[in-house]
Write a structure and sequence with these properties.
It is built from five helices and 24 strands. It has a five-stranded mixed sheet with strand order 1-2-3-6-5. A five-stranded mixed β-barrel has the order 9-12-13-15-14. 13% of the residues lie in helices and 43% in strands. Strand 19 and strand 20 form a beta hairpin. It is mostly beta strands.
Length: 334
């Protein structure tokens, strides 16, 4: 961002609003600047809401919003190699942010953060990555600057490069969103460089220790992805079994190839449940043990249909639960 004559920070860029038409746009807010930078880098069409327009300029302030638009809504060809000489939107793969800005950023946006790193005691987890390979991730990490804290997932080789309680300038982190929870994750381009950043009171360990909470939920606001399925009894596999054909007594696990008798196969059930916490919608995952308790409290039989389970959950009120703040798993229903 630039400094104006009146001392205020601003940024400017040119927005294509029609075939061959460019409009100078000026913004004064750091959060919208971060979004503009992201959409500029990805080449995504945008929709501006609550902006001030004059004949030849658009003004974006703190009450304005910028969203990614559908490419189908754009009825004109994108202009290439536009260079007005006054765009101040940095052409960079990542932007410097303060953690207080995190909630306003876009998923997968690349950012740089300076702060103190706190590491938990959990061992890195082995997970399957999108390309099918196995990878390691350490999820109990917190990065903290003067404006706030954020959960940080550190992947692969970066895990061994990080030390607890050390201040770092971290570049090329990716903004992530899981069940409405915004956090940061390392990428293959992420680098950790020690910095001189200091903070009197570091709260990272406190954030990491406060992982389980007991609350009473007024209602389950939304229920989604209720799934009833059988689990493979081969302990080295333990994956979902295919749908059982009616009348079949024996069927085969497609994952490990073992044949099993239906009467010995364990039935499992899971669901995604939305609750309201401090005015925000939070999605929690519920698995067999918890679902069994909830179904019992709701008076639903174990062989109930998915629709019957869904309807029963949404009729429940004042439900005491314990959940994990980081994983967003319901650990227990009372």
């Amino acid at each position: 961002m630039k400094k104006g004559r009146n001392g205020k920070d601003y940024y400017s860029f040119e927005l294509q609003t029609d075939e061959g038409k460019l409009v100078r746009s000026v913004g004064f807010d750091k959060n919208t600047h971060a979004k503009v930078n992201h959409y500029h880098m990805t080449g995504s069409p945008v929709k501006l809401v609550n902006v001030n327009k004059s004949k030849d300029q658009i003004f974006i302030n703190s009450t304005s919003s910028i969203f990614e638009a559908s490419r189908d809504d754009v009825k004109f060809q994108k202009m290439h190699d536009v260079n007005s000489g006054e765009s101040s939107v940095a052409i960079s793969s990542s932007i410097n942010i303060k953690l207080e800005q995190l909630q306003s950023l876009s998923t997968n946006q690349k950012v740089n953060v300076e702060g103190i790193l706190s590491l938990g005691l959990e061992d890195p987890k082995e997970v399957s990555m999108r390309d099918g390979r196995k990878g390691l991730v350490k999820e109990d990490c917190v990065i903290e600057d003067e404006t706030g804290t954020a959960i940080l997932h550190i992947w692969q080789n970066a895990i061994k490069d990080c030390k607890d309680g050390v201040a770092y300038q971290i570049t090329n982190l990716s903004v992530k969103n899981f069940s409405g929870e915004i956090f940061l994750g390392t990428t293959t381009e992420t680098s950790f460089d020690k910095s001189d950043f200091q903070k009197e009171v570091v709260k990272g360990k406190e954030v990491l220790s406060d992982t389980e909470k007991e609350i009473t939920v007024e209602e389950f606001k939304l229920v989604d992805k209720v799934s009833s399925f059988h689990m493979c009894q081969n302990k080295s596999c333990n994956k979902r079994m295919p749908a059982v054909e009616h009348g079949s007594a024996i069927f085969k696990c497609e994952a490990c190839g073992t044949s099993q008798k239906l009467k010995h196969v364990k039935k499992a059930i899971s669901a995604r449940i939305c609750i309201e916490l401090e005015g925000k919608d939070v999605w929690l995952s519920s698995f067999t043990d918890v679902m069994t308790t909830l179904m019992s409290k709701a008076g639903v039989q174990k062989d109930a249909t998915v629709d019957e389970v869904t309807n029963a959950l949404q009729c429940m009120e004042n439900i005491p639960i314990k959940y994990n703040v980081r994983s967003k798993y319901i650990l227990k229903a009372f």
